[in-house]
């Protein structure tokens, strides 16, 4: 799952990477704001979508999706993650999977490893230091008084080999080459993009032991991601070698070795 994450880059700094248009009404003070080290559910997160005009747009949404059919948002469970394997069929996420898919930029995320009675936080990030895009969903909830709340969730998938050391789930990290297809809700149905919702390559990430201060959402500073020890890493699985073709000089195997 993904219950906390980090975004170091500002909206302005990420504009070239994600190729989004910034609305002129977007508050100027937020364009260069960044360096959030402990983003938690109910807080604002960045969402990038294709927009009705086909151009990528960026906005802030509340992390914790509220389905449009919810009558009272105060009684709605906090849907900050959605299982990618079932989201297209779940009433809470079905419409968003069809019409409102997005990218959620992230520098890294936290996961906890149980060590006896304690839980050690790890900061998981790309080994090359790049900014990632989680697969996300958005929904706009309309209150009885006419107020609107833009909300979002992050899709999860089964863990890769590295993440399996910490948890059985991980956020879906989309390859940059897949961003356009994921965002193309007009032409790509959920079944068309299901193959994109796979675990990240085993050698993409590293997991860094960090301070237990990350356990509290009240803490939000750079020291949270300072390494306490060497990171956990996993190399890519080597491709299986094909057996050499037999030569004319090879002797046939003995009868017993055939079984």
Automatic annotation (TrEMBL):
One of its GO terms (biological process) is proteolysis. Its EC number is 3.4.-.-. Keywords: Covalent protein-DNA linkage, DNA damage, DNA-binding, Hydrolase, Lyase, Protease. Pfam families: SRAP. InterPro entries: SRAP, SRAP-like. It comes from the Bacteria. It is an enzyme of class 3 (hydrolase). GO terms for molecular function: lyase activity; peptidase activity; single-stranded DNA binding. Residues 228-259 are annotated as: Disordered. Belongs to the SOS response-associated peptidase family. This is Abasic site processing protein. It comes from Pleomorphomonas carboxyditropha.
